[in-house]
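Consider this pair:
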Amino acid sequence: MNPTKPNKIRFIILIVILIITVVFGTLIITDKNHVLLAKITRTPQQKNTTKIIVNDKDQKKEFTSEKESLQEALKDNNISIFQHDIVTPKLDTNIKKYSLLIVDIQRKYAVTIIDKKNKQEIVTDKNIIKDILKEQKIKLIKEDTIIPNLNDKIEHNGKIIISRANSVNIIVDGQERNIKTHLKKVDKIIAQAGIKLDKDDYSIPDKNSKIKNNASIEIIRVTKKTETTKDEIAFETETEYSDQMYEDEQKVTQEGANGILEKIYEIKLENNKEISRKLVSEKNTLEPQNKIIVYGTKKHPIGKIITGGRATYYYGPTIAACNLFPAGTRLKVTNTSTGQSIEVTVDDTGGFGWPTVIDLRYDYFEKIGGTVSAGVINVTIEEIL
């Protein structure tokens, strides 16, 4: 064997390695997550493209990209990255430095688990429903239902909804029963319990409602009956007038008497308790007798009349103070501006003189159109005999 032949072979190998190193500048890099990056210095004649190999869970994808960042390259190739996913190298890596880039995507799924009233939000690398439940130590029994199915895959930001078998109390005919059921609708639960509803019977909640665990269903039994009542009809008061009596006189010529009204009601009961009544008929069994009051219309004779004077007002216990007529005299006082009149009885004297002829308590003063702000009004005084 020629001893120089191995030397030649070694020499050729060294030359080849040297050429590759100089021309292509191959550099092997391993990052902290042990992802292999191949960086190759490009010559000006080479295209500015990077070959990217993506390990995405159980899938492997290869493509080339002329984008600048890894994030742009992944998006350009319809590879979505979600909030909790871990991408190595980082998304802002400048891929133009590499001719070959190996990318590892560790998928993390944000999952909402709704189990009865409990809502749990988790992040997991599992994407099969049964694996997620096992990881979270969530157990199911035969009557429970789950959406999606146990063997389905979860999507990003997906939901797992667990419907547990319910414990339901049914209140019916004065008794309370408890049943276990996976049914949700009230009417189906009632049927499962063997309870029959009559035409007008109903349930609370409504038969189309869906209920939760430890809920109660009350059956309302509806019945009807009739009832007869006798109510008084109030008499009315009739008014008559007589010119044989003075204006301030009146008398009752017929006393009133109530009548009787018979009513028939239809009564609706729920669980033997009245909840409404409807009047179906009524009739008078005794007519009422009206009360008759006669009022006099005859004017009292008028005595002395005072014109051209004025009235003032005051605050006090008495009604009318006058120096022209003695106490006890009935007077008709008329506001000459408005024509409004009032009858008063003199019960005091005043410390005033003409043209003031009468001093009225303020409320009587206002009854004939006087105002406190004005203070005085022009009046005519007529003595009522």
